[in-house]
């Protein structure tokens, strides 16, 4: 597959199917989470909503907020690829927001752990990392957590349109030294690297293109 392929042919008709705030709601939506899917996770304000909108080819699928920490739920989005094969993406709550209370962080932790333990269809974790800042402890912790659980991890550096080539290489090298995985470079604004990320996502979902 090459970079001239229309991104909208890879993830078609994506719609929000479920918003999950607690363990009971997660159980009620097990039919969705048992489907083969990937999860998007990252620090608050890393650009998850913008990336979802980019994948959907729409501006309003996921609400983009200037205030970090707004997403407090697991949001399940479902669509299909150009062959009609169903695709599911789970948008997990952003972490690392300093103004969250201890009880909020604990509630988030329990929800995410329960999701990881019970989502039978989870094929991998797309870890979004802000390319503008040095590796953060919370990101390292999430990566270690995923790898220790045996998850397939795809690190993605977001907002690369805001930094130069030298900074991109620096950030990639920093994370490669930490994870032994070279992060992908992506910009939701100009769609740089999005096709390459989609290729990896479809590979994890075992969908040929």
From TrEMBL:
Any GO molecular function: metal ion binding
GO biological process annotation, one example: division septum assembly
Keyword set, alphabetical order: Cell cycle, Cell division, GTP-binding, Magnesium, Metal-binding, Nucleotide-binding, Septation
Cofactor: Mg(2+)
The EngB-type G domain, residue ranges: 34-207
Keyword Cell division: yes
Protein's job: Necessary for normal cell division and for the maintenance of normal septation.
Family: Belongs to the TRAFAC class TrmE-Era-EngA-EngB-Septin-like GTPase superfamily. EngB GTPase family.
Name recorded for this polypeptide: Probable GTP-binding protein EngB
UniProt source species: Desulfovibrio litoralis DSM 11393
């Amino acid at each position: 597959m090459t970079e001239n392929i229309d991104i909208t042919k890879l993830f078609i008709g994506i719609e929000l199917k479920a918003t999950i705030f607690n363990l009971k709601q997660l159980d009620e939506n097990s039919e969705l989470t048992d489907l083969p899917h990937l999860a998007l996770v990252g620090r608050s304000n890393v650009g998850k909503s913008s990336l979802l909108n980019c994948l959907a080819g729409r501006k309003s699928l996921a609400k983009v907020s200037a205030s970090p920490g707004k997403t407090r739920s697991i949001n399940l989005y479902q669509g299909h690829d150009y062959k009609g094969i169903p695709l599911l993406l789970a948008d997990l709550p952003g972490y690392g927001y300093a103004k969250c209370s201890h009880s909020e962080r604990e509630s988030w932790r329990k929800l995410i752990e329960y999701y990881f333990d019970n989502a039978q269809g989870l094929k991998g974790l797309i870890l979004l990392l802000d390319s503008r800042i040095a590796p953060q402890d919370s990101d390292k912790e999430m990566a270690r957590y995923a790898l220790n659980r045996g998850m397939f991890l795809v690190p993605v550096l977001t907002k690369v349109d805001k930094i130069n080539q030298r900074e991109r290489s620096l950030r990639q090298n920093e994370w490669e030294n930490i994870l032994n995985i070279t992060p992908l470079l992506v910009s939701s604004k100009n769609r740089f690297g999005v096709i390459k990320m989609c290729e990896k996502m479809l590979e994890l979902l075992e969908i040929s293109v």
